[in-house]
Amino acid sequence: xxxxxxxxxxxxxxxxxxxxxxxxxxxxxxxxxxxxxxxxxxxxxxxxxxxxxxxxxxxxxxxxxxxxxxxxxxxxxxxxxxxxxxxxxxxxxxxxxxxxxxxxxxxxxxxxxxxxxxxxxxxxxxxxxxxxxxxxxxxxxxxxxxxxxxxxxxxxxxxxxxxxxxxxxxxxxxxxxxxxxxxxxxxxxxxxxxxxxxxxxxxxxxxxxxxxxxxxxxxxxxxxxxxxxxxxxxxxxxxxxxxxxxxxxxxxxxxxxxxxxxxxxxxxxxxxxxxxxxxxxxxxx
Length: 285
Fold this sequence. Notes:
The structure is a single chain. The protein folds into two domains: 36-107 and 200-282, HAD superfamily/HAD-like (Rossmann fold); 120-188, no CATH class. Helices cover 32% and strands 19% of the residues. It contains eight helices and 14 strands. Strands 1-14-13-12-2-5-6-7-8 form a nine-stranded mixed β-sheet, with helices on both faces. Strands 9-11-10 form a three-stranded antiparallel β-sheet. A hairpin with a 2-residue loop joins β7 (103-108) and β8. It is globular and about 55 Å long.
């Protein structure tokens, strides 16, 4: 039998973009060129908010093999910090870029170095504007609630639509429209609607980290990086990386995608990420 019979997309291939292929069909030649991995976190590495054991093993194996991993997420700075702080429970990643490209957290000795795209004055000025928009959303959109991780946010706001609360498509659209009307960038992840003031995004965060960590321009070596994601807010990355991969639960958003990844895994969430890691490690054996 080919592939995983439990994969949610095997019976939905007609919904796939013509350019999207199963990850198991990626060429060894392409894999040999890969320098590192960039990845989303929620529902790509995690399941129900916890790091999937398969993803944890894959991160450790990539680290041991010298393949750097940079996580790029809509989660807040405060939520992300513990996962890069050296010590028990730290993830073996080179950095986490939080709040959709706004904040970088880098393990440094026994501590975490925090760097921002925006200066202190800009962040302080934007905070009041963010709170005003959030209050409007909570007052005007039935059932809207701030994400439970909001206390750790420094550059954006997040409205929960699928983590601990549920908003239907109409309500999600209203949240996005309210953010955009205020001049904000708005994206929808698998769990939250995130909004912020500024031009940063996941792609600018990826460019920032390749220059910051490796001294190279991402756009000069796109074929040397794999990007893994799971949701509509990964579409910018899917369209930019030749080796872009959606874990199989991406198919839950099939009717909302305008930009598909080049590849899709057989398995969902952390098990899908582990598929990516296994292929990368196999050509290094």
